[in-house]
């Protein structure tokens, strides 16, 4: 038996950090939304009690360090599953890019194995398990659009933002999330207004979504990698309505509503960046079918 599960990337429309916690993590408030750029996770049922992983990508570990492997291992031990699985990941989402590719592969594995191993868990239960793997995994279990609090694992569903194109541009560098949080100056931040962003989304006000994009991690990564600022400037020059770095970066996204502008930005940035994509937002949450 085989199952193909889509694992979409996320962008952070707003990312605020409130303070550093005693456990070393940061208390965050983020507005996250999934986009139509996805890895494909293929799960094949094995009768031996084993987890095999194939990643076909030299930047993605093909052993127990892979977050999808960790998701399978977690379900296996927690629910004493005696069956096994072969996990094959077709990697489309850029790695270490601020797009939660690894977290989404883990979340897709949780959703898929719930079915393949017949575990009967709810999305809420899968999301809670996901938080043991990484801070972004709970959001990725649900997908759609949400407010994420705590260290990222407390999820409140939001409506889909107004329809738009998202152009993603990743420079030729990868960024360590831990290092970006470590370098954050808690007292020197320009906080985005999370409530204004929630209101803009709820009222389907595209202009206000554009005005309220904000990410406190952006300055940290911009200081480390000036090419991220250059990409932001270019996107604006080619006509993006608003531009922001996603998560800890280094991927920059720009949003537009008109097809012609999307083409202009996409064509303008290709060749200048490592990878460029033009995609739609994914409005809907995942369901357990
Ligand atoms: C910044 C964000 C924004 O969505 O995403 P990415 O840029 O990684 O995609 C997330 O907060 C990242 O989530 P995720 O990548 O799952 O983080 P984890 O694996 O749990 O943690 C990696 C490291 O980041 C730091 N970390 C993470 C989350 C958090 N709320 N506070 C932190 O300080 C910790 O140092 C931790 O060791
Ligand atoms: N399935 C996976 N896909 C991508 N990276 C993975 C995966 N499993 C583990 N990793 C590790 O996690 C790191 C960050 O991965 P990723 O999720 O792509 O970035 P980000 O945290 O910036 O969103 C990678 O450098 C890689 O070593």
From TrEMBL:
One GO molecular-function entry: ATP binding
Cross-referenced InterPro entries: GHMP_kinase_C_dom, GHMP_kinase_C_sf, GHMP_kinase_N_dom, IspE, Ribosomal_Su5_D2-typ_SF, Ribsml_uS5_D2-typ_fold_subgr
UniProt: ATP binding residues: 94-104
A Gene Ontology biological process term: terpenoid biosynthetic process
Pfam families referenced in this protein's UniProt entry, alphabetically: GHMP_kinases_C, GHMP_kinases_N
Residues annotated as the enzyme's active site: 10, 136
Enzyme Commission no: 2.7.1.148
Keywords carried by this UniProt record: ATP-binding, Isoprene biosynthesis, Kinase, Nucleotide-binding, Transferase
Domain GHMP kinase C-terminal residue range list: 197-273
Keyword Isomerase carried by entry: no
UniProt entry tagged with the keyword Transferase: yes
Reactions listed under catalytic activity: 4-CDP-2-C-methyl-D-erythritol + ATP = 4-CDP-2-C-methyl-D-erythritol 2-phosphate + ADP + H(+)
UniProt family annotation: Belongs to the GHMP kinase family. IspE subfamily.
Function: Catalyzes the phosphorylation of the position 2 hydroxy group of 4-diphosphocytidyl-2C-methyl-D-erythritol.
HAMAP family assigned: IspE
Name listed for the protein in its UniProt record: 4-diphosphocytidyl-2-C-methyl-D-erythritol kinase
Taxonomic classification: Bacteria, Bacillati, Bacillota, Bacilli, Bacillales
């Amino acid at each position: 038996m085989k199952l193909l599960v889509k694992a979409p990337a996320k962008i952070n429309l707003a990312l605020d950090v409130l303070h550093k916690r005693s456990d070393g993590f940061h208390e965050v408030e983020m507005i996250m939304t999934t986009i139509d750029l996805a890895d494909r996770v293929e799960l094949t049922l094995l009768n031996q009690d084993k987890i095999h992983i194939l990643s076909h990508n030299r930047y993605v570990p093909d052993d127990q360090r892979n977050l999808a492997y960790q998701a399978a291992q977690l379900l296996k031990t927690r629910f004493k599953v005696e069956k096994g699985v072969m996990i094959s990941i077709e990697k489309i989402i850029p790695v270490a890019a601020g797009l939660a590719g690894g977290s989404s592969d883990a979340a897709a594995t949780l959703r898929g194995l719930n079915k393949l191993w017949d575990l009967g868990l709810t999305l809420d239960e899968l999301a809670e398990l996901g938080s043991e793997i990484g801070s972004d995994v709970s959001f990725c279990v649900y997908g759609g659009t949400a407010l994420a609090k705590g260290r990222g694992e407390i999820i409140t569903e939001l409506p889909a933002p107004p329809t738009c194109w998202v152009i993603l541009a990743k420079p030729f560098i990868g960024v360590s999330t831990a290092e970006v949080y470590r370098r954050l100056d808690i007292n020197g931040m320009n906080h985005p207004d999370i409530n204004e962003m929630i209101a803009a989304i709820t009222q389907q006000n595209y202009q206000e979504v554009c005005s309220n994009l904000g990410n406190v991690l952006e300055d940290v990564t911009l200081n480390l990698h000036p090419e991220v600022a250059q990409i932001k400037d270019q996107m604006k020059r080619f006509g993006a309505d608003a531009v922001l770095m996603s998560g800890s970066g280094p991927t920059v996204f720009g949003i537009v509503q008109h097809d012609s502008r999307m083409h202009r930005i996409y064509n303008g940035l290709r060749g200048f960046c490592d990878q460029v994509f033009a995609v739609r937002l994914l409005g809907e949450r995942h369901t357990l079918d």
